[in-house]
Amino acid sequence: MKTVTYSVPAINCMHCVHTIQTEVADLVGVQSVKADAATKKVDIIFGDPASEEKIKALLAEINYPVAA
Ligand SMILES: [Cu+2]
User: Fold this and answer.
1) Phi/psi at 34 (nearest 5 deg)?
2) Distance from the CA of 20 to the center of ligand 1, in angstroms?
């Protein structure tokens, strides 16, 4: 298992939090996802077959791209 924290500036309300948590949790291999509207950060715990590339691609796809 791997833990990552991403900065996602587009998070600004509980709806964003809910969307991100629901979508990322659907990725196979993701064990936990916690988004925070105050800090605009997303904590994710995952293992195979999920990967940082897949998670970042998904976040970009749903219009919550990870800050570089
Ligand atoms: Cu929102």
Assistant:
1) -130, 115
2) 10
